[in-house]
# Entry
Amino acid sequence: MKIWITAMMAAVLWTVAALPAMAAPPKVNETVFEWVQSSSRANYYFNKQQICYAVDDKGKIDLNTLIVPTLKTYDDVQIQDIKDKRRWKMLPMTGFDDLAAEAEYLRIDLAKKTVTIVEQDLLDSTWTPLEKNTTAQEAELAKLPEKSWERSFFQAVIDYAARHQDEIIEHTKGELKPEDKKMLEQQRKAEGKALLDQLRDQKKKK
# Structure
């Protein structure tokens, strides 16, 4: 876990403005992080350089399971809301005057359509974790509200993974199972044939 958090700290750039009332919004390196959406309270990103598939104990890639480091940068209203709730619950406040963002480590089961938050870290403006939560939290996509920010974010990550499968395999430190390798080869051939057929149809129409 520490490896991806350290990489994230190095990749994200912060700008600091001398504004007395409002903190400057964080500037995120979008060559590393893929922006997905922005709510009124946060900006949602995932690390497109570190997204990968899970690997079993034999070093084989599991194409049904995605491992995804994510980042949410907060606005001042969200920061104040978190701080107020912590005070109300009498939780530690050390360092929370500099609260800025949240990092999560997701495990997405593509077959079961479930998302498990394996780790959640609240970060300050230097990307130092203020609080770490390693209690797994699992959600079924189908049971999340259809228009919720979380569901649309998770679905966007899944859609990205489907479009960038080869790239994500390259990110993964493991080997494809023989049956998966064969399946992907057949899939690529079918896609190539479909493209050729489409080009032929377009040529005939001309």
Remarks:
- The radius of gyration is 20 Å.
